Amino acid sequence: MKLYFAPETCSLSPHIVLRELGLPFELVKVDNKTKRTADGQDFLAINPKGYVAALQLENGEVLTEGPAIVQYLADLIPEAGLAPANGSWQRVRLQESLNFITSEIHAGLSPLFNATIPDGVKTLFKDKLRRRLDQVASTLEQHDYLLGAQFGVADAYLFTVLRWTALFSIDLNQWPAIARYMENIGARATVKAALAAEAAA
User: Fold this and answer.
1) Which value, to the nearest 10 degrees, does the dihedral of the CA atoms of residues 96, 79, 68, 139 take?
2) Fewer CB within 10 Å, N side or C side of the chain?
3) What radius of gyration do the chain's Cα atoms show?
4) Residues 67, 13 contacting (CB under 8 angstroms)
5) What is the C-alpha to C-alpha distance for residues 94 and 64, in angstroms, rounded to an integer?
6) What pTM does this model have?
7) Mind listing the pLDDT tens digit of every residue in the chain (201 residues)?
8) b/e burial code for range 167-189 (CB count within 10 A of at least 16 → b)
9) DSSP per-residue codes, the chain
10) Which residues pair with 8 in a beta bridge?
């Protein structure tokens, strides 16, 4: 498998999951501005959407969209427990969690990267985001991870997007449960390895 990634983007999430599962893969860096890969390919020919993450399978198929990728990967080695079994109520809860991260946290942070948006509008996005983080904190006050006692694919995704808050002066220490969660996940060997590999690429 090949994981197409760019540093400090949401592609870190499937990268972490690949390492958690111990699956063999090749990491291919993408320049988000030129849409060229480090090995000289046109990334738009690989993923016409033009953004990472993209996972190229051994049969040549390319899977995009982080929540879909991490569930696909988790189902390759179900005994690792990174996602509940398909068809179970717990799997529906995972999908609920992934959708919340996508639509409320990831999408809530994304506009802040746009330098042309006025500060007043960014303040509105930050205020909404803080309300969503209140909800996340409420969950993490009850459990170590989003779905309970075990690290899973939703945690890889949430950790990835919450790292961006530091870029916009959103101090996660306002939510002690989230700060503790981020510290715990950041200390995982797989997470450290993924971050080091991306920094070195």
Assistant:
1) 30
2) C
3) 17
4) no
5) 18
6) 0.96
7) 999 999 999 999 999 999 999 999 999 999 999 999 999 999 999 999 999 999 999 999 999 999 999 999 999 999 999 999 999 999 999 999 999 999 999 999 999 999 999 999 999 999 999 999 999 999 999 999 999 999 999 999 999 999 999 999 999 999 999 999 999 999 999 999 999 999 998
8) eeebebeebebbbebbeebeebe
9) -EEEE-TTSTTHHHHHHHHHHT---EEEEEETTTTEETTS-BHHHH-TT--S-EEE-TTS-EEESHHHHHHHHHHHSGGG-SSPPTTSHHHHHHHHHHHHIIIIIIHHHGGGG-TTS-HHHHHHHHHHHHHHHHHHHHHHTT-SBTTBSS--HHHHHHHHHHGGGGGGT--GGGSHHHHHHHHHHHTSHHHHHHHHHHHH-
10) none
Is the omega angle on the peptide bond into residue 53 within 30 degrees of 0, that is, cis? yes
Measured between its terminal Cα atoms, the distance across the chain in Å is: 17
| Nearest to 91, CA basis, from 7, 147, 150 | 147
Tokens (6 digits) for 15? 């990268």
CA dihedral (74, 178, 108, 112) positive or negative: negative
Supply the pLDDT for residue 181.
Answer: 98
- 143: amino acid identity, one letter: H
The one-letter amino acid at 194:
A
